[in-house]
């Protein structure tokens, strides 16, 4: 070493570059005292050459604002191709993510993907109404499919998608990102652990202001519904996930402001009640006409759980109310946050690499499609719907 | 002045004993700088001799734990008599509140109250099923009545109570304490001001663990219902108060754990949905089987309002979520708390002293009785109920 | 019983008027389930005739805004006389608290109190500079004295006050209200329990905007100093109380805005550092020129404690940060609040009734006087002061 | 387009792939209503080929756990080489970040970097005591240097580093990450805007538990001090940044547990007070022996600001207390978080690409080195130090 070692210091390299190298992994001992939370180990990522290659289909806001940036936090997946209908935008995007011009496709090119073994999976980020046909084509081209929620426009479509993927022996996963998000996972685990007794009531809400009438989310032909399938679905799916149980009956009400042309054919506000066999009741509500609020709350026998921003991309706050001796406490768990899109994509890559069934397969999406059909049915008829038990 | 005045100090008395005396009132100038919240003026109370004298009827937990202690924070009212069925307990209580032995009554003594002009009002704190008959007797004895909620066992009883008080020309007020509590008042005012746009969704919850099977609240003959009339009523009344509107339709579900003898004939858990003419939906839930949670939340076009512990005696937390430029803010309003029982009692005393109609008269209680009958009806039949418009 | 008992109900009185009467005390069984915090027992107060009678000396804001109203929450004490220099204000106040005209005194009347055995104690609420002489006179008249903080203008005065009360065999207590406030008590107990390891650092702050130049607090002859003795004292006393230890050295800086005549002779802002024998460092600061902030924070080996509004009359928030497994938690303890003035007054009444030494006797005030003298000394000289060990 | 367009939908591609493409940038119109916070635009990143290439020097925890992962969130920078003393660890790390074997260097290789124009900058992440010599070598090799804090072991070293970089005409930036973190930036801006009046007091704290005695941070020869230069520096630098002012005098105390061999020669706990010409006082404290706490608080004339976790990698919470009419409010600003390492690295890349001086150049580090020397001097002598005004 050319520079002077400071007096009293021996073995400088190992002091400079700490860590244990073992079986191709680098790890660190815990330098903190016991009272502090131990530092997490550095992320162990696959080298780029060994990661699962994804094409991303659809270059709207979600893709550019969240999904493509999320790939940089992935450990098992990488973006290798784009599928879009607007060439200039595609080229610009590809350039900035280092994707070559030979990996840019249009919606008509799906069968050409079959010739690209480096593209193992496709993340479908297009309007709901197009999912069914696109997934069928991708399955036919031999690609594993990660499909944005809601899965489809109808349960019939959802069933066709599942069948097509089964036939083609490719994996199908629905992008229910909250299943892969650490705070939502902690809530499900805590509820189902029984530590706070049995759950009795759930409240879930998902609202935001949908301003612009031109977007496809306000076109029922493309969106397949209004607030319910787009954002209310988080309340429905989130409640089922947290309880680990399927509802036995439901009731819904739908409200569209009478003179607003945007909501002539779809629901601005949708409120519903789910009753579960164990005796839990869930009250859910969603709206395109209220300031952003995306919270999940559970009342249990021995405490309450509030997950603020449960369905948001960031900003989760988990608080637990409980008795502690002769006073009440509210305990906030400060979990390390994670990019839920990256965690979701990595989960699918992990399933592909290890031939596993994803946590949220097509069947999970199908269940929600059936429930949303029943919810619209209840809202239309004003009647409570009793659901068939799945056999 | 016999003691030495410190050097440089003149007019010691006025420096020692600051304040302005004017028209029989003492007030203080604001000593704080503008950036701090000005100190409130000292409470201006009527001298004891001029306050409205109350008898308290029923010496259960609520009376001993909250109502009698609250009188010490009243400015216009004082406790002067007790009505109870257990002599030793009555004497002990009277002794500790400085109430003389000649002011102790039993439930059979109501007509004797007529001879006591110093007892101007009676606060009825007995099981719900007894309210109707007791209020009729008290009205007949010429006493103004402040009656605990729920008003009665049925809307028919409520109507009889209103009629009896009208006939006797005495005032009838239902003890909806939240109407007199500063945080609930601030929420109603903020919602109805339009500052955050129109309300779209309301969530209200009221749960607690009812442990002991022996108490009258678990005896339907005395309580007239389960969780709904006792604690769910706060969700119903609170939603109506905040919106300033009456529901047009409702739906409800009731759950009683199948093998729990306490809930053989009454609702442990009750969930309901209210639809309002303006297009607001409210989701409410109550349970005797979940850890204490008493919160009210409103989603509006331009923000959300959360009042934690809305229906509790203390511990209110008011937070308002809104956009501020390019970020979200959550603003906590730290209002000075007040003893809501004292404020409620003083309101009734004020109405008596000035011959005014209380903010929550018998008619307010009657409205809730009718709605609770419709809610039980919906829960029994599984049907949505459309309510008649009040003419 | 004249009214109809509802069908199925027997023994109505005991159901109506629940509770156990035993040894002259009323108590209630816990009706809540185990998961909820048990309801506290109703307050057990002495009847008015048996309570300790207090005269209140000085009718400024603190007396009218906090102390006199607090007596209504006392269980062992009652206000029976007033001592003031402004007759009309005194009469008005007495009238509204039901105090007779024969119980109104001026500052010259102190020796006349000797003839009133119903006045057992006097609460001195006058400017600091008058405390010494007044307490000496009250002791000579045979009255127990509860004296507002700061105890005096100097440690010499404080010593005279202690000696006078010892000689007259009356009790002397300094009104350090935070010692009697439940949240502050919980913090001291938690720190000293060792549950979170040893404390390492304390931060205490007490600021408010002093607007009006005319008040006695801005007259050094009456106040004996600026922000330090008035509000900074809470940081000093609070740190000592929480640690249960006396500082061994200190350093201070004082700042007065150069062109503000209000602060020509006294400290607007005062910052100080205390070093304790156990190795804890405390950083404290106070100012008359900053928006209200009155917080106490302790860093310990295994967690941190933050008591927001520690030194306020209300609004205490206690949060504890700690490791929980692999994440951090922040736990808010929601203790039942109590009126700290009432708790403080009742403590003194309890000591009088049972001949006990108060928790904050004159000696506690004397210690702070000596420390404040050392702090001013350090601020003047710019030197660290080493304190003598008390033997 | 081969698939069926849903009925009623025209111009599917532009609906599928929304956004405006202009001047090589993609942007989106705001789809949200005015009441919601507008969605931010997708990140606009340089294509990998045009980014500034960085070598990272030192492969300890900070590099593997934070800095290398942060590069994936950079828009202007990319990691292209590693410099380390342990070959196997270096190869493993390089493999997982897609860095070729020809880009791995040892500490002896620095002059070889001169032949690599693709390596434009080096991020130095080695023990403090090595910075000076390493930065001089890197400057000599013509590389821009981003150097971790603390800059050096002494102000003399810091001056040498600045001179070496000036002579070599390379840029030198000290990695004060908080300057590039959005919450810290918002606090500085708010304080200096005057919106809350003038600042009066600052409290800054930075504690954590240093468990393991073997690490270089506990070797004074390598660390150049104890808690102060490592973590207390954030309090010092953060206070200066927030106030935009240099202290005029200071006082410090240092505590090392008497029997702990880890702290025989260095400070476990360090507490200091800074006085600024404008009249602000800052109280700062740091410790290696207390549970993690990294908060910054400012008291101003018209409000207070608390930034919880100010100096942490994540978890920032910004709350502002203020008067609002007749009550206090506490307003939490929920800013979008950003990876502060990525923002810091991108800032340096931006300066290199545009030939600008970084916000935290070597001179900023030098100022802190001088102040830390004065702080240690004060702690050693127990005297207040008056600092020379910079001319």
What is the H-and-E element order of chain A? Answer: HEEEHEHEEHEHEHEHHEEEEEEEEHHE
Largest interface, C-beta within 8 A: A-D, 89 and 89 residues
This entry's quaternary arrangement is homotetramer
Largest sheet of chain A: 10 strands, mixed
- Low-confidence runs of chain A: none
Q: What can you tell me about this protein's structure?
A:
Four copies of one chain form a homotetramer. The termini of chain A are far apart. Chain A has helices at 12-16, 61-71, 87-97, 131-140, 155-168, 182-193, 220-223, 227-243, 340-354, 362-381, and strands spanning 20-22, 25-27, 52-57, 77-83, 104-105, 121-124, 144-147, 172-174, 199-209, 249-255, 269-275, 281-287, 289-293, 296-300, 303-308, 317-324, 327-334, 385-386. In chain A, the strands form three sheets. In chain A, strands 9, 10, 11, 12, 13, 14, 15, 16, 17 and 18 form a ten-stranded mixed beta sheet that branches. The first copy, chain A, is an alpha/beta fold and 391 residues long. Chain A folds into two domains: 48-177, Rossmann fold (3-Layer(aba) Sandwich); 182-335 and 362-386, Dihydrodipicolinate Reductase, domain 2 (2-Layer Sandwich), CATH 3.30.360.10. In chain A, helix 4 (131-140) packs parallel to helix 5 (155-168) and helix 6 crosses helix 8. Chain A is globular and about 65 Å long. The model of chain A has no long low-confidence stretch (mean pLDDT 92). Chains in contact: A-B, A-C, A-D, B-C, B-D, C-D. At the B-C interface, helix 1, helix 2, helix 3 and helix 4 of B face helix 1, helix 2, helix 3 and helix 4 of C. Strand 17 of chain A pairs antiparallel with strand 17 of chain C, so a sheet runs across the interface.
């Amino acid at each position: 070493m050319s520079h002077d070692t400071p007096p009293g210091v021996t073995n400088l390299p190992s002091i400079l570059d700490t860590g244990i190298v073992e079986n191709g992994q680098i790890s660190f001992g815990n330098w903190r005292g016991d009272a502090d939370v131990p530092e997490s180990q550095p992320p162990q990522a696959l080298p780029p050459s060994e990661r699962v290659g994804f094409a991303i289909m659809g270059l709207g806001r979600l893709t550019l604002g969240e999904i493509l940036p999320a790939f940089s936090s992935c450990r098992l997946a990488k973006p290798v191709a784009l599928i879009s209908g607007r060439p200039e935008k595609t080229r610009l995007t590809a350039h900035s993510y280092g994707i070559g011009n030979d990996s840019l496709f249009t919606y008509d090119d799906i069968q050409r993907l079959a010739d690209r073994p480096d593209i193992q999976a496709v993340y479908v980020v297009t309007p709901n109404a197009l999912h069914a046909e696109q997934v069928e084509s991708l399955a036919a081209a031999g690609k594993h499919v990660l499909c944005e929620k809601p899965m489809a426009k109808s349960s019939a479509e959802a069933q066709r998608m599942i069948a097509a993927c089964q036939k083609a022996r490719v994996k199908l996963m629905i992008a229910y990102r909250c299943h892969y998000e650490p705070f939502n996972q902690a809530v499900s685990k805590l509820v189902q652990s029984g530590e706070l007794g049995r759950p009795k009531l759930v409240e879930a809400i998902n609202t935001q202001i949908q301003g612009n009438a031109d977007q496809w989310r306000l076109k029922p032909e493309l969106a397949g519904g209004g607030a319910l399938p787009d954002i209310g679905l988080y309340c429905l799916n989130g409640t089922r996930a947290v309880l680990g149980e399927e509802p036995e009956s439901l009731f819904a009400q739908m409200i569209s402001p009478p003179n607003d042309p945007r909501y002539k054919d779809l629901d601005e506000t949708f409120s519903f009640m789910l009753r579960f066999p164990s005796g839990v009741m869930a009250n859910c509500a969603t709206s395109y006409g209220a300031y952003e609020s995306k919270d999940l709350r559970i009342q249990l026998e021995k405490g309450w759980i509030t997950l603020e921003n449960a369905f948001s991309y960031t900003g989760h706050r988990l608080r637990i109310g409980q008795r502690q001796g002769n006073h009440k406490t509210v305990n906030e768990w400060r979990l390390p946050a994670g990019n839920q899109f990256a965690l979701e994509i990595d989960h699918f890559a992990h399933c592909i690499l290890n031939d596993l069934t994803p946590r949220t397969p097509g069947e999970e999406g199908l269940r929600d499609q059936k429930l949303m059909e029943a919810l619209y049915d209840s809202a239309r008829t004003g009647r409570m719907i009793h659901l068939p038990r799945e056999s």
